[in-house]
Specification:
WH-like_DNA-bd_sf; 45% helix; transcription regulation; Arc Repressor Mutant, subunit A; Rossmann fold; elongated; 236 residues; transcription cis-regulatory region binding; five-stranded parallel sheet; alpha/beta; transcription; four-stranded antiparallel sheet; 11 strands; WalR-like
Length: 236
């Protein structure tokens, strides 16, 4: 399978350098030019990693975006900066990025670095067949007509696949992992989004509403995604 990355940059020189590297490595990337564009693109497809150019973007915006998307990216996040300092590195590594590189990049170093990061993320773990079968069973949760497969990131209802956004699936999985427990909105934000936001109630309520619309027989009278008034939500 060809590795595909999301590149956020407005620098033609950097884009060209990465195009040359990708051609030799048989990789692909989708170019977006704004942080918002990257967040939107990330919701639409599965990617191998993120390449982020800080030339036209502030450190604060970079940190906020990395914190927002980190749980969605099951691959390396690489930051490019024309001004590499210890402070920048320290703050970005706290946001759980994988590498912070000075530009211009060095192709002979960059390609093996990314290959190593991809290997680290995707190296297959050695399990016996019995362990694999047990793990497969443990990743599937059945709730009435719903089947939630946390390994393949799919949800079916009455045998029909239900299309969820990555964040909707993460929220549903988090509730499933804590089934029967009442979770506050703050707990859900910390567990799913992984960062502090001002309007905690709104973002959680909107995503719960979307899940109910897609999965419950009657979104106004849900049977699995329940509201516990004054506390939060729980999955039963």
């Amino acid at each position: 399978m060809t590795n595909k990355f999301l590149l956020m940059s407005q620098q033609d020189t950097l884009v060209q350098e990465l195009q040359n590297i990708c051609k030799k490595a048989h990789w692909k990337f989708e170019l977006v030019t704004t942080p918002t564009g990257l967040v939107v693109a990330l919701e639409k497809e599965k990617i191998s990693g993120i390449w982020w150019d800080m030339t036209e973007v502030s450190l604060d915006t970079t940190i906020a975006t990395m914190t927002l998307i980190r749980h969605q990216v099951q691959g390396p996040i690489t930051i490019f900066t024309p001004r590499l300092t210890e402070r920048i590195q320290r703050k970005l590594y706290r946001a759980r990025v994988d590498d912070v590189l000075a530009t211009p990049i060095i192709p002979s170093i960059f390609r093996p670095l990314i290959e190593q990061r991809l290997w680290t993320y995707h190296y297959p773990q050695l399990h016996s067949l019995a362990d694999q079968e047990k793990a497969a069973k443990d990743t599937v949760m059945t709730a009435g007509a719903w089947q939630i497969n946390q390994e393949s990131y799919t949800v079916t209802k009455n045998g029909e696949t239900i299309a969820l956004t990555p964040k909707e699936f993460q929220l549903l999985s988090y509730l499933v992992d804590h089934q029967g427990q009442v979770l506050s909105r703050d707990q859900l934000v910390n567990g799913v989004w992984g960062y502090d936001i001002l309007d905690t109630s709104r973002i959680v309520d909107i995503h719960i509403s979307h899940l109910r619309d897609k999965l419950e027989d009657d979104s106004q009278h849900p049977t699995h995604l329940l509201t516990v008034r004054g506390f939060g939500y729980k999955f039963v």
